[in-house]
Amino acid sequence: MRNLPGTFILFLGSLSALLGQTTILPEVLDLSQTTEKPYSYNGYLGVGSTNGFASGSASMVENGVIVTAAHVIFDDVNLVWEPSNAISYYPQRHTPNGSPVLTGSFKPEAFSRWTSYATRVENDPSGIGLSSPDTFNIDFAAGYISPFIKLASLRSFPEVHVDAEETVSILRDNREKMIVGYPADTDFIPESNIGLMHRTEPGDYFSFWSGLESRPDDTWRDSENFWVATYGFENVNTHSGNSGGPIYVRDDENAWVVAGVVVGSVGSTGVLIRGIDENAWQWIEESIVARGTSDLRRVTNLTAEQTSSTTILLQWEDNSEGETGYKIYRLDGGFWEAIATVPADREAYGDVNIIPGQVYRYKVQTIGTGSALTPKSKPVTVVTTGRSTVAATHFDQPWLGFVTEGDSNWFVDDGNRLRAGKVRSLGQSSLRLDIIGPGTLDFSWSVSSEVNQEYNTPGPTFGEIYDAVYLHLNGNPVMEGQTPVFLSGFIGPTARQMVLPAGAHTIEWIYEKDPYSTEGEDTAFLDSLLWTPDPANPYPVQGGFAMEDPGWHSSTWFGPYVATGTPWVSHSELGWLYLRPGNGEDLYFHSILPELGDLYTNSAVFPYVYHINRGVWLFYFESSGDFGERLWFYDQELSIPVRVN
Where is the Fibronectin type-III domain (predicted)? Predict the structure, then answer.
């Protein structure tokens, strides 16, 4: 296992000393544990070449397909790839060096990897044989064992987690992690333990991401434009010889998934992991296809479309033969949950009973016989039309038009608090209120999150905001001087007032995470909210807001209308109306249709409207009208339905 050179080591090392944390070191497994999941997926990689004998670790991720670090199978003295016949894979090895290996060994047929790895090593600014962050980023390989060799003792394999969005991986998340492999450094490991399977104690290891540490924030890509998927873990080390060893992470269903491989060390107190993203997955998939013993393939071309007010239709491409079905996942409260399983050869699923104005995210996973699984598909996202009723109902103002956006929905928790949905590193959860002024918005907000204690102290993190909730107005951050308005840390309900002039406005509360730690409840709250129209000049329609289409206004209760000539408006169902001045709650309006004339309604009684000239109530059959034509009402006085125009 190689060391990361330069300032990166100094940076992480100084942090370790600052935090006073103890480094987690590998511990030997009992022989009985090596046949249990996830340890049973792991093996020892022996590499013999003209440059001597080297060793590393590898993980079985599919029947006969293994993953490791590229430098384990690369001769960095002669700058050539090791021949396959010089490499041996020992599954579930747990015998000391020099003792008979009970599990036997297999010769990989071939490896798939970035061919440019050799060039990067040769041109590495740290010197030949060393690795800069740029070289580490393609330090990944997948190989396959001959399809004629049956691995009857290895019948199940871990799901591979693929970061499909070029975002910070679950390696960053606050969840349990563990590294398994075969360390071989006698400076740290007794010689009698060389050749025995080790693990690091499961825990939430703190991770840095070299996409931020080693390059400008606006690139996050290496010299070949690959997404930087390399992660440094401080205060955990597995020592030399463990290169290629897998890191397992608990997924949202509490199962271990392999999310990356060990590619280097960070000084003596850390380890470097190359995460598995789409770029790395291609080599695994290439090996699966080359071995040819599995026809189970990952779903591709997943799409999602809202087909009605209550349904989202998912469609995908079936690439498998012999699958037993497909599992449908939906992001719920920040966690991926299986919501349905459909039969084999199915390429569609309808999610019914969806809610307006919400974010819905989906993945689909192919299921095979036994416990065979492919990685989940790339996710798709749909924001449903309409306005979310969750926040409006919670604040007892059902006429307000909210939309939740970002990676996760705001929701009412068990403590009856409206809170931002759970998000991963670099993610956000946004709640947006659209409203037409003039009026006053009073609200109280709070946060429980990671905070930069040195925010106001001169130093390396001066002025940096960690996890925080921000306030935006009309698409821009609300500023106080040169600083955006935000809450970060452990801050209880804090009152704030916004006086909005006439016109359309959007107010957003955005909880946003940086790529590092998680503290507290890791969320923001909107504790109270009250919109009060300006009593001197209120907008006639209570809770009215501007739609995306220019010139259109709407409300959650009165529906959409063209408002370019206000107070004259063209309602999409009721036709031409004149909106009379009011108090911001009661709506008095005039219809050009002689059968209707002067009318009254409000958000609490609509679709009932009061016919002022006749002094009777009419019940409007919503969706019956089309810009003033073919309107149907139920006349309360005559007790009959009546068509107008």
Answer: 298-388
* pLDDT of amino acid 14: 35
Q: How far apart are CA 22 and CA 24, in angstroms?
A: 6
Can you give the three-state secondary structure of 255-313, one letter per residue? CEEEEEEEEEECCCCEEEEEECEHHHHHHHHHHHHHHCCCCCCCCEEEEEEEEECCEEE
Cα 181 to Cα 190: distance, rounded to the nearest angstrom: 15
Determine the Cα–Cα distance for residues 306 and 406; give it in Å rounded to an integer. Answer: 18
* Percentage, residues of the chain above pLDDT 90: 66
Distance CA 296, CA 449 (A): 42
The DSSP bridge pattern shows strands 411-412 and 418-419 to be antiparallel
Give the number of other Cβ atoms within 10 Å of residue 212's Cβ: 16
- pLDDT one-digit tens code per residue, 606-620: 999 999 999 999 999
How confident is the model at residue 100, as a pLDDT? Answer: 62
pTM equals 0.85
The alpha carbon dihedral of 369, 60, 145, 263 has a sign of: positive
Strand arrangement of the beta sheet that strand 335-343 belongs to = 335-343, 325-332, 359-367, 380-383
Give the pair of three-digit tokens for residue 344.
């084999």
Rounded alpha-carbon distances, angstroms, from residue 409 to 115, 355, 359, 391, 551: 42, 11, 6, 11, 28
Structure tokens at 639: 């007790």
- Residues in contact with 46: Cβ distance below 8 Å, sequence separation at least 6, in sequence order: 53, 54, 55, 87, 88, 89, 90, 105
Q: Which letter, b or e, does each residue of 235-273 get, where b requires 16 or more Cβ atoms within 10 Å of its Cβ?
A: bbbbbbbbbbbbbbbbbbeeebbbbbbbbbbbbebbbbb
User: Could you tell me whether strands 575-579 and 586-591 are parallel, antiparallel, or unpaired per DSSP bridges?
Assistant: antiparallel
Instruction: Indicate the range of 9-23, 235-249, 490-504, 524-538 predicted with least confidence.
Output: 9-23
Cα torsion angle, 108, 113, 116, 122, sign = negative
What is the share, in percent, of the chain residues with pLDDT greater than 70?
92
Q: Say which DSSP state 145 is in.
A: E
CA 280/CA 41 separation, integer angstroms: 19
Q: Which residues contact 416 (CB under 8 A, 6 or more apart)?
A: none
Instruction: For residues 76 and 72, give the distance between their C-alpha atoms in angstroms, rounded to a whole number.
Output: 10
Cα 239 to Cα 186, 375, 425, 476, distances in angstroms: 9, 29, 28, 48
How far is Cα 211 from Cα 231, in angstroms, rounded to an integer?
Answer: 8
Pull the structure tokens for residue 559. Answer: 């529906």
What phi and psi values does residue 419 have, to the nearest 5 degrees? -135, 155
φ/ψ of 454, rounded to 5, equals: -100, 20
Would you mind telling me the total number of residues written for the chain in this entry? Answer: 645
Contact between 519 and 450 under an 8 Å Cβ cutoff? The reply is yes
Q: What is the pLDDT of residues 422-467, one digit of tens each?
A: 888 888 999 999 999 999 999 999 999 999 999 999 988 899 999 9
Domains belonging to the chain, first-starting first, are 2-291 (2.40.10.120), 300-383 (2.60.40.10), 389-533 (2.60.120.200), 545-644 (no CATH)
For residue 501, give the amino acid letter.
Answer: P
Nearest to 181 by CA among 306, 48, 74, 26: 26
Residue 137, pLDDT > 70, answer yes
| Distance from the first to the final alpha carbon of the chain | 81
